[in-house]
Structure formats: C-alpha cells, structure tokens
Write a sequence for this structure.
C-alpha cells in the first residue's frame, strides 16, 4: 500500500492505495464520492468522467497514484458554494437532460470541460464534445439543449428530434 494525496473538490485528501487502484475506485471507495459512476471499466461509457487539473478524464483509466498532488473535481464539486445547482446542472434539470441519471455525472463533467474550452459551442460541437459519453435513455437531444442553454444560447428554437 502507498499513501496518495491530492485535492478533491477543493479539499486536501489522502489515503492508502495499491498501485493498481483506479482513480474511480479511490474516489468512490476511499472517499465515499459515489457520484462518479462506474459503468463499463473499459473507458467506453464516460460515466466516470472527472476533472484532473482542469481536464476531463475518464477516471476508470487513471491510477490514483498517477494523480498524486493533482486538483480533482467530481460531480459533487460542481454545485455552487451555497449548495444550489450550477448553471449547467440547472440546465440539465430544466431541459430534462437526464432520465435514469446514471450517465448524468459524466455528461455534466464532460459538458463543463467542453464549455470551459468553448463557451459558445454550436449544436454540432456539443455533440462532438460529448462523443465519449454514452446515454442509453435520452437520445441525447435534451442533453445537447442543456449544454447550449448553459452556454447562454436560446434553445427554444431547437426542434425536437
């Protein structure tokens, strides 16, 4: 076992991990941050996306030891300081950009990274930016609308698919 330390959602944390412990497992099992979902363990679904030093990363593909000293942000860290939903989270709720909710944390984290890089994406850019995330329930249309709304764009003219 090796001690690993990092900052998660603005708080310094540490724990004992084996060399093979994935970041997703450390977050869920070691820190109790169960909003990071594990859907496939093969980096196909995107349910485990978190931010590491500001970059969207599939946490099931990264060893916890490899992010020692890093700044990690999970879905639990996305809310406003007062606990209210962030603009992006509220847009997901407003546009019903979720159904079962399993993919939602990864979608929100990927969308946040997309908007950080491109504050005013087109519909096509949103769809491309979310390619690594699989949703089996929504058909993606309302997720795309949510991301566009969060970017400040008028989504009332986007036709239903």
């Amino acid at each position: 076992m090796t001690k690993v330390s990092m900052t998660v959602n603005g708080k310094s944390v540490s724990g004992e991990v084996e060399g093979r412990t994935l970041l997703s497992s450390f977050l869920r099992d070691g820190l109790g941050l169960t909003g990071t979902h594990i859907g496939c363990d093969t980096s196909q679904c995107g349910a485990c996306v978190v931010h590491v030093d500001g970059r969207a990363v599939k946490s099931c593909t990264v060893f916890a030891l490899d992010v020692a000293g890093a700044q990690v942000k999970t879905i639990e860290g996305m809310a406003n300081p007062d606990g209210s939903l962030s603009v992006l989270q509220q847009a997901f709720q407003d546009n019903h950009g979720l159904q079962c909710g399993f993919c939602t944390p990864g979608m929100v984290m990927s969308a946040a990274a997309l908007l950080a890089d491109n504050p005013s994406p087109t519909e096509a850019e949103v769809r491309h930016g979310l390619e690594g995330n699989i949703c089996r329930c929504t058909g993606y249309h309302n997720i795309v609308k949510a991301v566009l709304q969060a970017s400040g764009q008028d989504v009332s003219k986007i036709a239903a698919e």
Remarks:
- Residues 55 and 99 are 26 Å apart (CA to CA).
- Residues 2-76 form a domain with the Ubiquitin-like (UB roll) fold (CATH 3.10.20.30).
